[in-house]
Amino acid sequence: MLPVLGISMGDPAGIGAEIAVKALANGDWSGKCVPVVIGDRAAMEDAIRFTHANCTLNIVSSPEEAGGERGTIDLIDMGYLAPGSWEYKKVGALAGEAAFQYVRLGTELAMARRLDALVTGPINKESINLAGHHYSGHTEILGDLTGAKDYAMLLIGGRLRVIHVTTHVSMRQACDRITEKRVLTVIRLAKQAMDLLGMPNAKIGVAGFNAHCSENGLFGDEEARAIIPAIEKAKAEGINADGPVPPDTVFVKAQAGQYDIVVAMYHDQGHIPLKLAGFKLDLATNKYTSMSGVNCTIGLPVIRTSVDHGTAFGKAGEGRANEESLVDAMNIAIEMAKNRFGTRKEEQ
Predict the structure, then answer these.
(1) How many angstroms separate the CA atoms of 147 and 298, rounded?
(2) C-beta atoms surrounding 312 within 10 Å
């Protein structure tokens, strides 16, 4: 049986519907998975129109009705939008409410095992908050909806895999949140992530926080206070962890294959190398020629992957968005779903 993927459409004012249409119309998923978009018919029909996609919509009421046939996009129509009721490139409460509800339904279906994985399109944080849902991003929404306590953001781009100890907080707050308990939790989540990716013996490189890993305390105490004790405890549990490794070299070593995954201490420490590797901008045309990369949430009771970019309001509704990251996210979701279900069969 093929894994069933739910694809939440993302913010209607952004590029979510467009990249969903492009990913599903241009690719042959019939032998890989059954994709089901959770979104709005009006936005998907408009995306088909301005992208000139050679496909049709099949409105379904549940994942079980999806056929997964090439040239057909199975859609659960949430009915939040009427034609012309939203505006591309604009922050708004209606778009935020719709985007939130797509994620909510997708999460509920995944929790009920009616979806094998949830792949999320880009949302706008301001719109979500205008709609009354006060979250800083997908990771926090999914943590709340699933009741998960320990989870972390994982980014995947080619050989690079990076999981984060802290994400959407200020640098000052990040210092306080780098505790031995949290670092150890994320090292364990890194192991869990690599198991889902079919690499149970993965080597985990743990980045330092301060320049040169603090030079034995000259530049800070996070390494001695939190990071080193967490690594030692992880090793005692049999986890193949190493570090702390200076942040300015750990990604070079991971890219070369010395580490299979890196534990980063804060948002930009992990995001910058991933986007440098996966995003390519052509200044002559001011277009991205590559936007590869996948965002995953590890530690949830469901599999969740996502594009590694935002709503791209600047190009929304114009037909020039790049679907590469969504395609990557779908492929990673398929791989994780297959590995998780294999484990379940063994346990049974």
Answers:
(1) 13
(2) 22
